[in-house]
């Protein structure tokens, strides 16, 4: 049987022949004894895997309707003259009524396992209009969270979090979501949703993220390494970037793991989603790491700088433009609020952002490290500037000033 519907199967041709006979006026007075069998044929054909057969059955049934319920008598569709009562229909087609009742009460031949639960989906979609206490009862408790509820209602929960201005309620949400993050039954989609909830809370509440459960942090690191899918990796990178503003919770090992993943994801051979995630995460984390984490190793600093340079030189224009936000975040004074208005100043060109990035590093001479290869590339593009003369560069021989490196 042709399931693609590209050719007419014999059954489809037979249904088209029956339709032609039904539409033949001289035969119409003799159709009534056969209406039940013709309708039964249509019902069985509706369950066919072939589109051609289903389509032919639909056309045949359309031809039978006028014989089943009668012709339209007046133009007004709401007129009682055009209506057919149930007793009249039953008296005309008693066997057809039994056929329809048995079809409605029986199981579908194409029934899919779990399809019966779909009836609850429409009800769950109303969650976006439910009050906040209903969301609390479903998701903000110590009981294990239902994955189907979370996946269906994630957009509604995210909207509620973004719309909320009550810090205490958001902190309550944060505590519950960290608790749910430790559950081993989470699906990758549910994991990514919870990580996104926590990220939005971190963006809205300054004190959020100050107390992180150890197990939750371990789950976050596993997601960041790609063990829960690309969506969870993206969300975990950005969330951990926000957590960098609390140095007390970030150990040197965590910082090294974060920088290592950023270095891996910013590489040109990485996927576009991973490179974009690295760019967004660096934009959030680079300022806190360079200003608040005073015991950061030179290896970590080098990885962050090299990742930024790689993203600013990415072949994808979207990623390059996103990476310019890293430089803007680094040079923006602490405490300044960046407002995104129609008249706000756009981010600089990636090449200018690259120059500004090294210029900013030069002002902090002796603190930041770049490779000699990157420094020579910069000199070839822009020439040697006074600021670069103080930039500390890295080579296999150690560290030295520009003059010492020649």
TrEMBL record:
Matches recorded under InterPro entries: ARM-like, ARM-type_fold, THADA-like_TPR_C, tRNA_methyltransferase_THADA
Alphabetical list of Gene3D superfamilies matching this protein: Leucine-rich Repeat Variant (1.25.10.10)
Protein's name according to its UniProt entry: Thyroid adenoma-associated
Domain (tRNA (32-2'-O)-methyltransferase regulator THADA-like C-terminal TPR repeats region): residue spans on this chain: 54-125
GO BP terms: tRNA methylation
Superkingdom of source: Eukaryota
GO CC annotation: cytosol
């Amino acid at each position: 049987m042709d399931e693609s519907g590209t050719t007419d199967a014999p059954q489809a041709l037979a249904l088209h022949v029956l339709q032609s006979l039904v539409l033949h006026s001289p035969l119409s007075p003799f159709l009534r004894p056969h209406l039940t069998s013709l309708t039964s044929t249509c019902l069985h054909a509706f369950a066919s895997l072939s589109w051609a057969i289903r389509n032919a059955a639909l056309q045949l049934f359309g031809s039978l309707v006028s014989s089943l319920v009668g012709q339209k008598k007046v133009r007004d569709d709401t007129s009682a003259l055009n209506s057919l009562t149930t007793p009249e229909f039953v008296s005309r087609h008693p066997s057809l009524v039994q056929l329809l009742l048995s079809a409605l009460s029986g199981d579908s031949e194409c029934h899919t396992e779990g399809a019966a639960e779909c009836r609850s989906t429409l009800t769950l979609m109303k969650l976006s209009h439910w009050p906040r206490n209903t969301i609390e009862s479903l998701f903000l408790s110590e009981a294990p969270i239902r994955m189907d509820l979370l996946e269906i209602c994630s957009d509604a929960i995210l909207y509620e979090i973004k719309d909320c201005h009550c810090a205490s309620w958001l902190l309550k949400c944060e505590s519950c979501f960290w608790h749910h993050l430790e559950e081993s039954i989470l699906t990758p989609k549910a994991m990514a949703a919870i990580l996104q909830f926590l990220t939005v809370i971190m963006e809205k509440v300054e004190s959020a993220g100050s107390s992180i459960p150890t197990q939750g942090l371990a789950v976050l690191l596993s997601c960041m390494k790609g063990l829960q899918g690309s969506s969870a990796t993206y969300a975990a990178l950005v969330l951990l970037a926000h957590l960098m503003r609390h140095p007390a919770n970030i150990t040197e090992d965590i910082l090294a793991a974060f920088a290592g993943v950023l270095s891996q994801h910013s590489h040109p051979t990485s996927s576009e989603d991973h490179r974009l995630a690295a760019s967004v995460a660096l934009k959030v984390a680079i300022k806190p790491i360079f200003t608040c984490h005073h015991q950061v190793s030179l290896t970590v600093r080098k990885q962050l700088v090299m990742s930024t340079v790689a993203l600013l030189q990415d072949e994808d224009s979207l990623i390059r433009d996103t990476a310019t936000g890293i430089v803007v975040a680094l040079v923006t004074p602490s405490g300044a609020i960046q407002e995104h208005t129609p008249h706000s100043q756009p981010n600089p060109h990636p090449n200018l952002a690259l120059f500004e990035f090294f210029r900013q590093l030069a002002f902090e001479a002796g603190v930041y490290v770049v490779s000699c290869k990157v420094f020579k590339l910069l000199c070839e593009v822009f020439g040697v500037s006074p600021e670069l003369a103080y930039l500390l560069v890295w080579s296999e021989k150690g560290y030295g000033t520009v003059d010492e490196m020649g």
